[in-house]
Structures
1.
Amino acid sequence: MSEGIDRQAVERRRARLTRIFAEIVEHAQVQCLSRCPYRDRRDLCTARFGCRNQGPLDSIHGLPICQCDGQLDYRGAWEVADPEEVLAQWRADSQQKVVEIESEKRARPGAFHCDAEAGATLFDLADNQNVRVDSSCGRTGSCHECVVEVLSGAEFLRDAGDAEGFLQDGFRLACQAQVITAGRIGVAPLRRAPRVLVEHVRGDVAPRPSVFRRGDEVFRGDEVIDKWRGRLLGIAVDVGTTTVATELLDLETGGTLCRGGFENPQRFGGSDVISRVSYDANHPGELHGAIVKALNNEIQGLCQQADVSRHTLYEVMLVGNSTMRDLVFGLDVQTIGQRPYKSLTEHETAAGSRGGTGLEISARRLGLLASSYARAFSPPLIASHVGADIAAGLVACDFDRRTGTRVFLDIGTNTEVVIATPERMVAASCPAGPAFEGGLVEFGLPACDGAIDSLKAVGNGFQYTTLADAEPVGICGSGLVDLLAELKRTAQMTPLGVFTAKGGRAREIPVVDDPAITLSRMDASHLAQAKAASFCGQFILLRMLEMDPGDVDHIFLAGGFADSIDIDAAISIGFLAPYTTNRVRRIGNAALEGARQLILDADRQERIARLVEEIEHVELETADDFFEVFTEACQFKPMRM
């Protein structure tokens, strides 16, 4: 163990963790002796054998009512020779059912389920369902663009071959995965079309790009780089862990020609940055290739939409967290996954072999479809996981030029917090995970058509709205925040995440009856941990600067999730600190807006370099009471400073 770490504190926390897990195990052992596995959520018996606890038949469902009082071991009432053998078989059957029906139960945007005949590929199935799957190699398996997730029916497919060796279990190349036995198969393309936030609060920028025209010649600085081809274009790109947002710009007028966005296709390498760092160690270059090919598809689509030539695209400004940015530029990201969690560019800057953590490279060398004279840029990182996207977002809202106390929150798979006083500016990254963005939660979704985005408890049920007013298929992040707040407000859930129905033994709460959409205790646990990460970042930095959240002068919420979240609901469950709500400003995709400003005004690139040097990075886990703060943060209740 390295110097500077309090060994006794570590042992105290380890002992506390041991006690917590011991209590969980003890609770599970008690529950398994009082709650029969054949007793469903309606307290009806589903067993196909006799039991002395079976009561009269339920008139609606035709099943016996379970009359077990929960005080005695239910197995003693089973009229079977060997209760343990029956229980073991039930466990095996349950696991098989999960494998078979989980994907059918879980709604996914862009996913489809269909009956497949032997000989067809997953690409053929997608074609028949009119579902787009990317490919640029003629379906030969060489481009690695047609990655899909197999949701069900994997047993009907031929085993993966060498061309698919880079993929983890559950993912296949659509052109290579062939059906060998007829059956029902569920598939979800990775490059789906969720709602990607491209809107943002726009700042006034007088165009002063580094590329400009004089007569019939195109200059970069003092150098002639090309002849005039009718346009000078640039593209701003925000590469997020979950989604990618783009904006095509006219460098001469500063105008936006069109915007776009897509789901980050690197998800086959994991849903969070640490998983992707680990994946890249075993399959170097695959994640880089996936995002570059997706960006090329996007560039071609945007140019076609704007009726312009990609050969007039001279500037590409890429922002993202440290891992996402470095993967785009093809850098080794292993150092980001190891203490002290710094990008290779940070290590090189500290060693004096690099002037800063900003990046610049030929776009063609990067593999991007642009002018042969185009350059790809990235602004500098702040530190560790707090990346170039946050630096760009701070420039977008003039964070460094405002007076008073300020808070900047970019909420996503990784939540970043920057807090400033007139004397000091600190930043931290909070690894929230994907629970509020469609991962880990059974009916969780990214923002897409049919996702429940707002919700209110009314009577014995819920009133809700969905994106595009479509039929509900799941719940996105803002809807989950509303749901948790409403469950707590109506006493259907305790601050500890326990559902109060059935004497506290309820395992799930129905949200929508048809189609069945529920929230389970496990879902609530994942959401509690994701919320706790955001809580810790705000709490520890506010405490460090001795700030009362109610007194903060300016609060900026950035990102797609923050753009639609109910502020009061988020405060009530401890997702946000108790800021004064009329001082909170939603600024949309601040990273994309910052990239737009940087590409249009070359002078701002010097400003962002100075800003980054002023920010002090804080590792949250170094706080003496971090474990205690995190444990408290897992409860659904308002933050108390």
2.
Amino acid sequence: MTNEKPTDYAALIRAANQTVGEPPEWLTTGKHVYSPEYGVGEVMALLGKRLIVKFVEEVNPTQFINWEEAIALGSIQSSNANLVSSTTLPKVTNAVTATVSERIQQIPHLAFQSVAQEFIASITAVDIKNPNQGIVHPVPSDLPPALRLALQNNSIDRIYSHQIEALTKLRAGFDLSITTPTASGKTLCYNLAILESCIKQPQTTALYIFPLKALALDQMRKLQSLVKAMPNNRIKLALMTGDTPTSERQRLFIPNPPNILAVSPDLLHHYLYNVRRRDEGEGWRQFLRQLRYCVIDESHTYIGAFGAHFANLMRRLRLAVDAVGGNSQRLQFICSSATIGNPQEMALRFSGRTNQPQRLHVIERSGAGSAGRTLLCLAPNSAANVEASKIVISWLQHKLSGIVFCNSRAAVKGLLGLIQRETQRLGLGYLTSKVAVFYSSLTGDRRREIIQKLQAGQIKVIISTSSLEAGIDLPELDCCLLRGFPGSLMSFWQRVGRAGRKRHGLVIYLPLGQNPIDVFYARHSQQLLSGEVECAAFNPDYPTILGKHLECGCIESSLALKELNSRFGKAADAVAGSLLQQNKIFLSNNGKLWGRGYPHKDINLRSSTQTSISLIEKHTGEILETMSLPLAHREVFPQAVYMMQDGSGELIAYRSESFNEEKGEALLAYLGKETDLFTEAESELNIQPLSTLAESKIIPTKIKDARVRLTLVWGEITNSVTGYRLMKRTYGMTCKNQRCGNYKKPLEGKTCSLCRHPLGAAEVTKLQKEVAFEEPYV
């Protein structure tokens, strides 16, 4: 029976970290050993210290907990016997020299020049990239006629040199890593070859993996447009996201699986379980058997824990393909990303072909034309929303469209509120409906409505979190504002790439005065503009992550012991040994690891909770938004004031009247449009060590006489919301010195008591009350 206790991940880490000596040459997989108790047998696997042997006289494989002790006690000895292995498998073989004012005059767009002149006092650097024509070729005459006609019907009569290069290499069977700049046509690089294969070999299937829903919808919309333009089209496309009902997912594979299936990595993680379902899984198994291409779009997003999870997901995908009768060695992997420092290494790790680098072709040089763009770097600002609102209002007055990237939802909503108040104060209230906010908890219908209104010109500016950072093609955008450094140069250039896709674009970088990294890049703009993009880093062999996916893989497809390390890496043996000891996986008589249950539900690839909370309008029952549980704890606790934008662009306030975690809902009551109240959650972070995994280490630092003691522990990290503060936004006298502790606090008198600066009238916030919860939300 399956052990119902939670997996002991601390044990996995201890197993992976234990010091294991090098076994003697005679004690390796495939060698023959002798036991006084069991007789002659063959070594099936060494899982850390655990030894598994299949003895001739025994029905089941025999496991020794510690091979070193077994040798010392004489329980295992060398043998010269010759046995035929039943488990052996064949090996698959411009420096800125002019002044800012002079540079502004060189911007090839009068409206952009005008905007720049408004903020000239804050501009520290101007970087202008001029347009270029690119290198184009006629559409290849050897493409299938139906595909050539579809391209023509989509106004594509020429393609870029790097798209020709990609087509040639994919036809030759290579894997690809495409790292050309944003808006260079990376999607067509692989769509041409894949559609050609689907036409010539109708059984061909391809898996497209997109990290964001908005990206998947956008890319599949373009692909659908191309496929629909083909005469006698029989290519079947499908998109599955978390929003796709289970019944609809099953219908996608009837009567035949789709040729091209787009999924999120999160959905693929769960859907791999269908490999073992008898009837309902047959369409999925057929898709995997015929799988020829695997496209990993925006591959730079898979870093850290997310990258480690994704690399293991790819291990499970290859295992599943082989388990259902397909051929993972025939698979062609295509990684696409505009901003990444180590594209070759990343692509090889995702494909599992680090020992076959010759199979990968990297395309870095773009033949695409560029519309050019101007990037303005501003001085750090401690009142970033005030400056950002001025920039957005300037765009609107110049009839420019744009996107603003903020690093938090609070900043997104705060900026929208300030823009609406400022436009009303300036007599420009008619501009209110031209600005919309965009973030992940919006409903799918609302997200699509915003994009459609932008494309129709009804909305001119979107204020977004990172949700619109990657891959979305919005040629309607003239401008882009980055309110603060996003944390990496990879993300910075992804955001920059949202503007200037079809005509010269304007990008403005507004550093936050409170952020040291923003201040650094404001002072060293050349390092920002010409610095190397970071390398993607992740560790797929980290025991807790590896253990979760190893357990899933054994349940989905089962795994031959001899393939353990080749499929799941060098740490897999020790982790598998610990999972066997905990009865999380089992060993069959034919030397395969298998499992029971559905551990998938307890794994989140993005390392966040899977529980979601629906925000429901109390009187109508309408679902307004859906968000994760931790976010709901911070934003819709009972009595919280929650702001959201309605369809007309108005910012509406609701009050949370109840929060029910078991039902997964929070009931919100309409509060009004003109409220000056808002709430701030009070939270605590608690770290509780549970067990020590390694001895403490003292390491030196670059600070004189300073050292750091590091201890690796297994522990529990708890975030809790303990109460809230009710705040009121008013207009009154305050200190306008951004460096003063009284900045924006309500004050009386004529001068500030701290910095002695004269007081002035401005928007200030005042505490109304503080509330502590009887029981914190954890």
3.
Amino acid sequence: MASDRPPNREDAGGRGSTSRDSDRPPNRGDAGGRGSTSRDLDRPKDRDDAGGRGETLKQTPNFHALLIGIDFYFPHKLSDGSYYKSLGGCVRDINHVEAFLKNRLQVPQTQILKLTASNVEGSTKPSEPKELWPTYENMVAKFKEVTEKAQPQDQVYIHYSGHGGRAPTTSPKLKGEDGIDQSLVPTDIGNPETRYLRDLELARLLENMVDKGLVVTVALDSCHSGGAARNIGDDCDIRRSETGVVDTTPRPTDSLVASEDELAQTWESLAQNNQNTRNITSSGWLPEPKGYTLLAACRENESAYETDFDGERHGALTYWMLRSLEKFGTGVSAKTLHNRVFAKVHTQFEKQTPMLQGESDRSFFGNNLVSPQFTVPVIQVDLEENQVQLNAGQAHGLRKGAEFAIYPLGTADFTQTNQRLALVKITQRGAVHSWATITQMQGENKIEDIQDGAPALLLSPSVKLVRKIRLLSPEEQNQPSGIDYKVALQAIESAMPEGKGWVELVSGDETADYQVSINKLGEYEILDRAGIPIANLRPALEVSNPNAAISVVKRLVHLSKYHANIDLDNHDPMSPLKGKIEVELFRLPDDFEPGDPEEFIRFNDSGNVPTLDVGQFAYLYIRNKSSLPLNITVLAIQPDWSIKKLYPTGVAFQTVGSGKEVKWRIKTSLPNGYQEGTDILKVFATIDGTSFDWLELPALDKPIQPKNAGKATTPLAKFLAKFLASEEAPPTKNVNSAAYASEEWTTEQITLVVKKGFNNG
């Protein structure tokens, strides 16, 4: 992808760095007031996003939640002999969502309805009381209960983590004789008298909420795709039946939700803009929603994975949704949230594309809710062990590895990042108290400066630099003839020193980021953690090539740096530049040629990934919403595994004045031989002019040129050079950018799919 003309500088201001008075206070925009005190979680105080003014925190009585998580599935067999495997992360998903709602939105416990089925080793049933099991009857009853309790204009959040299923439709007149109902799978689906909660019923339950005037958001962390998974291993599970089969087990067809005619009426109303009532949207769940927002884990033909994050099993969608809400705050738009969740999930799982339907421009939770920053007090300082004890733990949704910034006792304004004493990371998590190791002291401070009661501010997850590799034996039917795959995999292990510390083999029960195996053709394959071959790694590397193993390791290093750049973000929730650039992509008419009048057309993808044909034109729109001029640079992260600066041309950055905007026209392209590819346009905005040459990568298999870190002058450039541009091993396996000039930069990114022949499809 490339710019097709010199950048449009109208309204963009001059080039070059803006001078910056070192005494000038940082731009705080909407960062909030001063005068609040640090907040003990057991005695919350009301604050706006910056710390507020010390008012008593009010609960949110107009917010209701229905949370359903199913790990335990009673033993059973479906019509083809497969079954729904018990899971390990769904109840944890729900518990963490509940903790987030209670601690960040102050939703009263009485406003949260929860159905869970925990999978306790050795148990023959869920550990919860039977009336709290997610059976069909209980799920329908809870949907009706939350609809009854909530009043018009109240907000309702629904989160489901568990298996998705498929069964022959109960409405053949509506969907056809061979029609399929997509469904939520109850814990007791092993009983042939148990019914699925079908898509037609879900549509009706949600319509009842909308008709009452409720503001509804739904997240479904499950899938229902067909086809067997390959090489999934122990690192992941898929949230559907083992084969994705359509379950033809005879089951009751009557509904506890509504009559057959009422269900059909709702479905036809939702599907009226589709080609037919069988053509559901690409998420596979419902026709285009009306009056609510739906975040689904994947496309209809993909899988929703659960895997280990920070040593605990979670659904990928739920994990990154919560982490992104920690970063953006609860007032984030559904579209912005989806963009980040998509980027995080899709880079880990090749065949999982989170989908957004419905009202994508409104706040994810319905209204512009403002939540206090998540701060907890230090309750003990252990000088000898270089650690502190924090008054928070598993009950608050904390994960092992969570990072905090500690401020001086009595700090009121958390935007004063230069006042931070230290960064710490949770290493021992308890139920309500946790120990955190001090990872870095800030400035000239010493551990003795940390006092009991000092506030600790939760930071966003750090960037993983060193990636873990698993060597995976090929399945028996895929073993190549005439090749000893064990010797071939041993060659990879022997070549690992060529990775110079950027990649390491897994040990014990560690979760792998990439897997290496051998296919039936005798070629090395690099797979994602779910066992899906990573696309567009070309040319193929034959095991018989004496340099193949070294080439594989070098590719793994390239992928590690590539994905680290995608993950790069400002992890500081108090950065004054947070949310201060607005980035959007517009397309031009399909027949547009340079010189024609320019008509900007919004993508109608309802928050999903924009798709364009090769040679099509689009505009990237960047607006500076801060009170300071910002320096803009755009990197193109491309499907040939290269990263290049595309905007502006000829200079390191383009200065855009406060309240001004810049529009950059692009023309889509694909590397030779590619039929489809994904581009990520990553936009950086800085106060001091900074070069982002440190992040550039050549195409795959091209030598990565060493960069002279001594040329880095600004704090941000020094951070990029030290951690992301090093040829040798990075100084740490993970890095949190909150420690490095976080008040001076921000970044946003947009994902775009380029598909040859898309407009002819």
